[in-house]
Amino acid sequence: MSVPEAPVGQKPSLLLIVSLCLNLALIGVVSVMLWRAQVPEVGPREPRAGLSAQMLIRMIPAEAPKIEAIVARHRPRLRELRGEAMRARAESFRLLTEPNFDSAAFAKSLAAVQTADAALETETMKLTADSVAALTPQERALVASKVHRPDRIWLRRFFGRR
Fold it and tell me: Which helix or strand (DSSP H or E) is residue 145 part of?
């Protein structure tokens, strides 16, 4: 009489293991989403460092008509400068994708992008300066209290200073 052989145990398939891992990850994602949904929204985020005319309108709604008039005065120039910046970028990309790449022409086009961006930023800063100048001293103080100053914490982390 021969001894019957024990059935060979099946090894778990790779597909089953991957499926279980994905299910665990999905459970984790869903639980984090549910946990975050329970946290009440405190309100709109306070503005970070920097300032814009749109931020001023949100902070001081009473001055919205005045600031919107300033924005309307600057809008044509901003659109023109934004178009120049987009055209400069398009030209740089065109030079980058040409079969006969010319590094001097590409460098020149990148300089044109930088010049266009600087002009756009200058006009944006003029808009912001004009908008802030239209506020009363009390409104400027209110804005200054709401806008966070940059703390440069990233710089301290980078250089290891505490």
Answer: helix 137-146
Question: What is the 3-state secondary structure of 86-140?
Answer: HHHHHHHHHHHHCCCCCHHHHHHHHHHHHHHHHHHHHHHHHHHHHHHHCCCHHHH
Measured N-to-C along each axis, helices 103-133 and 64-97 cross at an angle, to the nearest 10 degrees, of 180
- Indicate the pTM of the whole model: 0.60
Determine the pLDDT at residue 154.
60
pLDDT at 155: 60
Residue 49 makes CB contacts below 8 A (sequence gap 6+) with: 147, 148, 149, 150
pLDDT, residue 68, reads 93
Residue 52: closest CA among 147, 152, 145: 147
Tokens of 105: 């022409």
Q: Within 10 Å of residue 116's Cβ, how many Cβ atoms?
A: 19
Distance CA(65)–CA(71), nearest Å, equals 10
> For residue 82, what are the contacts with CB-CB under 8 A and spacing of at least 6?
120
- Contact assessment for residue 49 and residue 144, using Cβ atoms and an 8 Å cutoff: no
With beta carbons less than 8 A apart as the criterion, state whether 70 and 127 touch: yes
